[in-house]
Design a protein that fits this description.
about 240 residues; Rossmann fold; 2 domains; two-stranded antiparallel ribbon; 10 helices; binds magnesium ion; phosphatase activity; HAD-like_sf; HAD_sf; (DL)-glycerol-3-phosphatase
């Protein structure tokens, strides 16, 4: 087996990678645009979702309103507030995606330092992890949200901040950190920051969001396929 790299630290995206949350955004967004039947939202739903994925909420809101010609109807803040009202009831139902629990617990129990780097804003992050709070706090030494950075993905800022916030032993550099992402924008950010990366594309969205500009080091169908030893990380114990 060829070693893909010598990884000492891991950085995880959250939405669509660890937690199945994208579906809630679709449901909430559908409801917001129900009152604007003429804007063409229904016809372009998947395409718009692809454009918004992985972006900071303000950027995504501005983009979707501009695309639909609704800038005079709602400000990005109003859109986000309407959507948030609906989301508040849905997000705490977020479930872990296949392979996430096993991998996170394995890395934690093997002493591999891990951080979370999510574009999600802090209030939404808290709702989504409400039923997984213990797992997240025990697995991640620090959890960065969209509000902790100036530049959203595909800018590498959130990954660089996550890298620099690790305690001792610190990673030797970006190339010692493995970034897990489902969105092409996230992979773009990881590559721009000099990180090694694993892309686990959302199956439904893959067709609309396309490929990252520069490919990740590895692409997997699910986190279940990840083999830590390929990256110099401790292997799973056979069960
Ligand atoms: Mg994601």
């Amino acid at each position: 087996m060829a070693l893909r790299g010598k990884i000492t630290h891991c950085i995880f995206d959250m939405d669509g990678l660890l937690l199945d949350t994208e579906v809630f955004y679709t449901v909430a967004q559908d409801k917001v645009f129900e009152d604007f039947k003429e804007c063409g939202y229904q016809e372009r739903k998947q395409e718009l979702k692809g454009m918004m994925m992985g972006r900071k909420s303000q950027d995504a809101a501005r983009l979707v309103l501009r695309e639909l010609g609704l800038e005079d109807e709602m400000t990005p803040d109003e859109f986000l507030e309407r959507r948030a009202k609906i989301l508040r009831g849905l997000l705490p139902q977020a479930k872990l995606l296949p392979g996430a629990l096993r991998l996170l617990e394995h890395l934690r129990d093997s002493g591999v330092p891990c951080a979370l780097a999510t574009s999600s804003n802090r209030p939404h992050f808290l709702l989504k992890t409400q039923n997984h709070a213990e797992l997240f706090s025990s697995c991640f030494s620090h959890q960065l949200c969209g509000d902790d950075v100036v530049n959203g993905k595909p800018h590498p800022e959130i990954f660089l901040k996550a890298r620099d916030a690790f305690g001792e032993p610190k990673p030797a550099g970006s190339e010692a950190c493995l970034v897990f992402e489902d969105s092409p924008l996230g992979i773009q950010g990881a590559v721009a920051g000099g990180f090694r990366s694993v892309h686990v594309p959302d199956r439904e969205m893959a067709a609309v969001v396309g490929e990252p500009e520069k490919p990740a080091d590895q692409t997997l169908r699910s986190l279940e396929e990840f083999r830590p030893e390929e990256w110099g990380l401790p292997p799973f114990k056979e069960s």
